[in-house]
Amino acid sequence: MSTGLFATKKSVAALVAAHDDDQGSALARDLSAFGLVCIGLGATIGAGIFVLTGTAAAQYAGPALALSFVAGGIACAFVGLCYAELAAMIPVPGSTYAYTYATLGELCAWIIGWDLVLEFAFAAATVAVGWSGYAQSLLADVGLRLPAVLAAAPGGGGLVNLPAAGIVIALTALLMRGSREASWVNAAMVALKVAIILGFVGVGAAHLKPELWHPFIPENTGTFGEFGWSGILRGAGVVFFAFIGFETVSTAAGETRDPQRDAPIGLLGSLAVSTVLYVAVAAVLTGLVPYRSLNVADPIARAIDAIGLGGFSVAIKLGALVGLTTATLTALYGQARVFYAMARDGLLPRLFARVSPTTRTPMSSQATIGGLTALVAALVPIEELGELVSIGTLFAFVLVCTAVLILRRTEPDRPRPFRVPAVTLVAGLGILSCLLLMAGLPGETWIRLAIWLALGLALYAGYGRKNARRVRAGASQASG
Asked: Which residues cross the membrane (predicted)?
């Protein structure tokens, strides 16, 4: 290991060896390629397909929304290919954190680990609030309503968002039982929501009104991003965030039976399936309802009503509810693995690295994250955190693409079970795509990110750096 504030790094060999050798605290390797694909789909296909499609069609791309999804899928593919190479080469928990430790050093690894809290924990809380809304809507359909004080956070008309906190706690308990059990439940829910989406596509295709696709690319209104080709581009930027979550697969590489083969399948397979489903839904949706009428919270339910199958809207709400459940589950799962990896390196308290000898899961890490996330979901009106989650994710994506380029130079001979084709071009386009999308976010979001990272640096200076040094010293003495 090289040392120095900006140069303290672990080699790829050291990262892999530490994970393979420390069997007493290692996570169970229970996951298959199919399980990884389901994790990716569980994380990716959430409310975006049920809500975001309508907004993007009505405001930006019109019937050409399908092209926006194709463009968004291609942009994610650049990043996904980079994740696939790293996950197969470095099959350890921690995902972007571990990759950054091997390429940019401990300080940058801490920054990205802290940044991943935005992607996973805050995202889980945000999605849980959305889950609460759909759950209350379904309850209202059968005449049941929660008291207002238990239905929303302070500032949102209530005292505590009980359903949001409840789903986080329930999913945390499931994850603490073991990765295999959680994977089975996730796979079952993924199968259900994919079946509902395919049902919509099949039923909708039989009632299409092709005239609604004309003009396929509406004329620009005179404002950049509102229809025309610029609208397709703006729509791609918006729907890009519907793909966020697939990288959760990389956090599971350390719990996969054959990560060198299965991690790329999980990453790229879930991305491919998600893209196909998004494009199909966009095409059918705009062929059932005039695109200008889709700027509603439930565009797919609106399309079902348009063909006279209002009863099917209950299934659509159920699909959205299941989608949000799996998105919350996988976000909680990913965050616990990142904290587990950071704690093993001494950057967080050892508590987060403890593994249950019975379930082989990071119980303390999972329980702590679940409790704090439930608290945030229950008490904080977090709609404004959506853009903060997005910028945090894009920041991580940039570092992943950068890590691939660095490792190709620093460790060119290391075996790579999966290699990014035309790596300089692909990784470069991945970095460029993410930076452009980050540049398009509001200035306030950048300020919030700066404040969050400054808080993280203070924690690193006050605890992480010193404790990590002690852990490294102890490891050196033990090996000597």
From this structure: 33-58, 64-86, 107-131, 151-175, 187-207, 227-246, 267-289, 309-334, 363-382, 388-407, 419-439, 445-463
Is 417 strand, coil or helix?
coil
Domain extent, residue 106, equals 31-479
Can you point out the beta strands (E) in 93-239?
Answer: none
Distance CA 382, CA 371 (A): 17
Cα(171)–Cα(168) distance, integer angstroms: 5
The answer to the question of residue 469 being in a domain is yes
Residues in Cβ contact with 350 at an 8 Å cutoff, skipping those fewer than 6 apart? 343
DSSP bridge pairs for 161:
151
Identify the residue whose tokens are 């992480």: 464
Q: Which residue has the higher pLDDT, 442 or 74?
A: 74
Condensed to tens digits (0 to 9), the pLDDT of residues 19-53 reads 555 544 466 667 778 888 888 888 888 766 776 78
Q: With contact defined as beta carbons under 8 Å apart, do 12 and 407 qualify?
A: yes
Residue 265 lies in a domain: yes
Is the link from the previous residue into 417 a cis peptide, with omega within 30 of 0?
no
DSSP string, 45-63: SSHIIIIIHHHHIIIIIGG
- Look up the CATH number of the domain holding residue 161: 1.20.1740.10
Q: Is residue 280 part of a domain?
A: yes
Q: Residue 217 has which token pair?
A: 């690319």
Tell me the mean pLDDT in the region 471-480: 60
91: helix, strand or coil:
coil
Instruction: Please give the tally of structural domains in the chain.
Output: 1
For the packed helices 386-410 and 65-89, what is the interaxial angle rounded to 10 degrees? 50
- What's the pTM? 0.79
User: How buried is residue 443: exposed, middle or buried, by Cβ count under 10 Å (0-12/13-18/19+)?
Assistant: exposed
* Region 335-360 average pLDDT: 86
CB-based burial label for 299 (10 Å; 0-12, 13-18, 19+): buried
Band of residue 399 on the pLDDT scale cut at 50, 70, 90 = confident
Does the residue 92 lie in any domain?
yes
Rounded Cα distance between 423 and 334, Å, is 26
Does the pLDDT at position 189 exceed 60? yes
Confidence check: pLDDT of 479 > 70:
no
**Which structure tokens are listed for 229?**
């080709």
Closest to 299 measured CA to CA, from 279, 311, 313: 313
Give residue 431's pLDDT: 94
